[in-house]
């Protein structure tokens, strides 16, 4: 991963919100790699980056939902737990960035 990836993310209308917090880029990568997470508590526990207290984390997810970056839906296993996933446009944009830089790296070998 190079710094130019951060520049692409920062210039994106939707992805830029994933650079606002110390843990948000890790959150983007987790949601990108896993497609969805069952339970806000579960994704909170998986993060290894410095993170806020749980209520602030949950508020940030609601913020990302309002910015049309993620879906927060009723859980598939338990309705009381929520499923978190990237919106398709956000996923596709980040996927294009990742594939572009993976292609550059593989061609430089």
What's the gist of this structure?
It contains five helices and three strands; from the N terminus they run H-H-E-H-H-E-E-H.
Kindly describe this structure.
A hairpin with a 7-residue loop joins strand 2 and strand 3 (about 80-85). The model has no long low-confidence stretch (mean pLDDT about 90). The chain has a 3-stranded antiparallel beta sheet. The protein is mainly α. The chain starts with a helix and ends with a helix. Helix content is about 55%, strand content about 10%. It has helices at about 5-10, 25-35, 40-45, 55-65, 90-105, and strands at about 35-40, 70-75, 80-85.
How would you summarize the topology of this molecule?
Blueprint: H1 3-11, H2 24-34, E1 36-38, H3 40-46, H4 54-66, E2 70-74, E3 82-86, H5 88-107
Can you give the mean pLDDT?
Answer: 90
> What is the overall shape?
globular
The helix/strand order is: HHEHHEEH
**What percentage of amino acids are in beta strands?**
5-15%
* Number of domains as seen in the coordinates: 1
Name the descriptors.
109 residues; 3-stranded antiparallel sheet; mainly alpha
